[in-house]
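Instructor's aside before we start: the two examples that follow are unrelated to each other. I chose them only because their records fit on one page, so don't look for a connection. First example below.
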Amino acid sequence: VLSSSLHRLVREFVAQNNTSQIKHVIQILSQEFALSQHPHSRKGGLIGLAACSIALGKDSGLYLKELIEPVLTCFNDADSRLRYYACEALYNIVKVARGSVLPHFNVLFDGLSKLAADPDPNVKSGSELLDRLLKDIVTESNQFDLVGFIPLLRERIYSNNQYARQFIISWILVLESVPDINLLDYLPEILDGLFQILGDNSKEIRKMCEVALGEFLKEIKKNPSSVKFAEMANILVIHCQAADDLIQLTAMCWMREFIQLAGRVMLPYSSGILTAVLPCLSYDDRKKNIKEVANVCNQSLMKLVIPEDDEMDEAKQSLTLSAEPTSEESLSKPEAASSGESLSELDVTALNQPLSFPCSSERIQVTLNLDGIVQVLDCHLHDTSIGMMTRIAVLKWLYHLYIKTPRKMFRHTDSLFPILLRTLSDESDEVILKDLEVLAEIASSPAGQTEGHGPSDSSDARPGPVELHIPARASQLSSSGTKSLECSPSTPTMNSYFYKFMINLLKRFSSERKLLETRGAFIIRQLCLLLNAENIFHSMADILLREEDLKFASTMVHTLNTILLTSSELFQLRNQLKDLKTPESRNLFCCLYRSWCHNPVTTVSLCFLTQNYKHAYDLIQKFGDLEVTVDFLTEVDKLVQLIECPIFTYLRLQLLDVKNNPYLIKALYGLLMLLPQSSAFQLLSHRLQCVPNPELMQTTDSTKPSTGYRRTTAPNIDYTELLQHFEKVQNKHLEARHQRAGRAEQLDRRVVL
């Protein structure tokens, strides 16, 4: 009855255009009833306000503020029945006003977001009806104030209540579906919150959020030129590291699309992206999807680094987006820019807080943040807990950067060098191979010769080349081009890091004997493929000549000799040494010989390889003055086995020419006399029994010179001086053994006492 009477009264005031009386009625209903302390009065007031709105009809829009405010106040009433009546009253008010309520949308949305989490099912049901009505109005209208709404949405999106989250996502889906509302422009404001909702415990909410994010990604692919990629990059970096698999996979998929669509716009965020992506590359099959997407991200990001990045001055120059192509299509004048801070500069606790963004600008600066990238790569190499595939990816990145931006990368070489050397001790052969590729590139890159980028360790400075008794110095040879510098290693070849690398590699072998035993040959053989084999052997021999640890020097020489004689990678070098026809080959022989003197048997094998049979015989004659140990005899045994290998086929064939190779036969008999009655003795003895009688091997025409003539010495080599050097080195080894034996005896005495 009250409602009917009120309806007639208001209709009369409307007919009379009596605005003051209408406001007076609304004020009485609000102040004296809806906001009364008595529950029944509040209920009556809510019914009266709804009736008043219905009576006003299309004119209710003039009084919406006065009608809505008291109803919204009742949303907070302790009595669930009153909250329900308030919801019903607001439904009637909105239904009558329709589009006129849009200026008040924020307060309505705020009130509804609270009712969405109401514990009373009737209230919740009523709020859902009101929510659907409001969505219909927004969908129909073209006057929705999105700019005014975004701050409220950004605030509410961080709610932890499931119903509130569901309410928020439903509204985002509605707004996204309205053609006249461009929510994509404001995606940076809500993206972080969306990813947090994606981690909700409710499967339904997660699914809704997935759908919302999927719709946004579709729109991004359709309109990449209008997307603010830079403002969302760091948000994705954070969520690519989430513990929740769904969040991480979704963020990684977004990152993949961003890199492919935005191209070099993503370069300033490379360090953060790598921090997020690299660990994922070592995931097992349980996270196979994440691993695969992360791998695509990594490869796509790597392709963005170009040689031009090495030519730009990081402090002054930058590339504008208009000059840069993307992998999918060109982007023109993006509307937003973001500072290129890496993940390390972000507060991860920001996951629970709204993120703020910088103002947009018409042009975006695209600069490769090389320092940040190198810092991330270095950090991952130092982390012993990371997986093999991550370590391989890090080394691929370093190699790629040295190829594309060598000048800038050499500024970081001194800091990277130690960890690259330590990585040679990795358990994985694949990691070691990639590590050697990086080290080889450092050692051979022309950028390494630039002034001011040389090795900083003064102790590693290369000593002067050894004076050799040969007519031409390799340092006098002219060459052109970077790779042609490799013709002889008697001067600092490759670049200033090459010799430093060789020194530190030998130091590592010396300190880690297990590395030398298990991986030494593998590492050196790979280096011979990646770099110039002659350079490697020449430099190592030069360094070992000055090695104070004589036992290590002997072991290292034995390892190098075995590689030289048996590795297919060194076929060309063996052929070069076999004839000693050139000054370079004689130079190399003399250098190797001086270091090979640390190990008597390897010295003889070098003479066999170079066909210096007379000198080999002279050396074996000196063996009588040496201390013959079990190790010594074992090495002689191994040399006999080597003589039977394909490497020394030419040597065995020369045994047919007894007349021209007497010292070869004498040298082999000398080895036979050194050996005890063993299998090696029997093997060599049988071989020498096959040597033919010289008289039987004579040709019918004895006047012609023999075509099988072999030299006994190489020209321009002072063999006497080499023999003296051999004796000098062996005397040092004898003194060192005596000293070790003396120390061991003193230690035994102390133990007895």
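Example two begins here.
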Amino acid sequence: WGLLLLAAALGATAAARCPAPCVCDNLRAHVLCLNGSLTAIPDTIPELTRKLDLRGNSFMVIPAGAFLATPYLTHLDLQHCKVERLEEGAFRGLGRLVYLNLASNGIALLYQESLDGLFSLQQLILEGNRIEEIQPGAFGHLGSLTVLDLRANALVYLPDMVFQGLQVLRWLRLSHNALHVLGTEAFAALPALRRLSLDHNELQALPGEALARLDGATRLDLGHNPITYVAEEALAMASLRHLFLDHASLQDVAPDAFARSPQLRILDLRENQLQGLPPLAGAGGLVRVSLDGNPLLCSCLLRPFHKWLARARVQAEGACAAPPALRGRSLNSLKSPEMRCSRLWPPPSPPAPPEQPRAASSRQCPRGCVCSPDIHHGSCENRDLREIPRDFPEDTRLLDLRRNLFRTVPPDAFPGLKELVSLHLQGCSIRVLHPGALRGLGSLLYLYLADNHLSTLAAAAFEGAPQLAYLDLDHNAFTRVPAGTFRLLPNLISLRLQHNAIGELAEGDLAGARGLRWLYLAGNAIRHIAPTALAPTKMLEKLQLEGNHLSEVPTAALQGLPALSELKLSQNPIKHMGDSVFLPVASSLQHLYLDNMGLEWISPQAFTGLGPKIRSLYLESNKMTNIPDMSNFTGLEILNLQDVPFHCDCQLLPLHRWINKLNLCVGATCGSPAEAHGVKVKLSTTFQTCPGWGQGEAGETNPKKTKAASKPRKKKRSGKSPARGVSKTRA
């Protein structure tokens, strides 16, 4: 009885402290604050809370010690919270946390102490952020982690020892990034890894040396990479059983390519450019080879492979593409005499073997700097330097020169650093980047120039750095996009020009940026975007224009962007939204931000063309009283209608009905008439006088359904109660 009384007392205390926008389930110690307008972590969450769901808020930054008041948390969900930065020590004190979901935010960089204190964490979800770079040591405190999800970020490079400390990690998910450089020791510290997902990246060769460190991995996903050839003994993974190389660009596979992976059972080579395969020597355990979707030439050249299949008892999936007499025939149905040699197509020649790595440099570290030869890093951060130091080791891959006083970057500033991948020059008072400043940096992928005083850039400044993929120019003094700069950067993927003073986006500004995927222009003074300004960027996926001076949706400029999936127009003074304004990107758009604009009127046809592909729509903090029909937005995961003064009359009845059917918390409230002010649209009784009321209304507003729902159930339906509970809680 004492324990029960104590539990009751704690429950009463928790109930008293539940933050106003949230719903607290004291019995299960759960707190839900979904799709609200929270801008800071509430400090009145009950101390004993174990599961905290904060999805769909607007935190931007998670400060140090943000959750010190809730030390018993085991599950924390921060999806879709517009988080851009995790301060060092943000999760300190959460020693019991086992699940952390930070998916679909704007996190760009993980520092060494960002995840400090999470020593019990088992699952970390960072999918759908814009993480460009991970510093070694970022995961060093996560000794209990078993699943790390980094899908759909902006990673190009993985440095050596980047996953150090993840001793029990079993699944590493790196799909849908832009990886094309892996350090040879990138996976060296993952002794327990069983599954590695590297599909949908930009790997041009099988990274055999990096993968050889994974002795225990049993499944490797490498599909959807532009790999053209698998060389001799390219893969040495002692425990590998499942290998996926589907939808690549394979033209040839060496006979002994998998000889050092003796446990291999399943080999998936679907949808490549293979005309055939040789007998796969050493792959004695192979059970199935999938070759569907390849242009197989079933001539005498294929006989050795066909005989090997029968001898080794390997099941093959695939069909002939040529000669015409055998087109469509499955490999298993062929007989050797049918594979004739009347026409011999010469097999493709394998590419030349890669260069052997050069010996490490004997150059010493510059005075006052710190060089780490084990991870190939050099750092002179915040040393009050006036000139860029030289004589770093030639194998340096990351160079951190932040917070010095260089003012200019002279020509040939980084001699001998041919292997440099990441260069940090933030906060160095730089006003001029001279032509040839980056000459010789042929491996450079990341260049950080934020928080300087740059107002212009000469294209020649980037001469000698053709691989550059990420360029960060945030918080400088640009009044226009530096036109012509990108012609020497054919591999540029991400361009950040946020918080400058750019007034317009003109024709030709982005000429040469044909591979650009992410363009960040938030916090400028852009009033106009020329109809052809974005024309060179046909691969653009994310366009962020929030916090500018646009007075209308730049519909004409969105023409010719077939891959655009995210558009941010928040905090622009767009008062009216006309017909079909998003039609040019309707077939690809998934995330649309229209919040905090002072929007007063939206045409009923404004969303023409948009539909099931839309996953998140932000309309909070506007002034319109109605919104268009969105009944075909069936894929919505996030819908935010907070702080919109809806006029709850009969014209809003379709919205009321639609919201009642959604399993989402949308935050819509009535602004008028007076008797409904402040009442949730979902619960307002003003609709009960409307024609057609009562036909198909939700249970909570239909008396008959309410009465029926109050009767005890005769049978327990397994598996459905939790779903009903979640729906009711969200409602």
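The radius of gyration is 29 Å.
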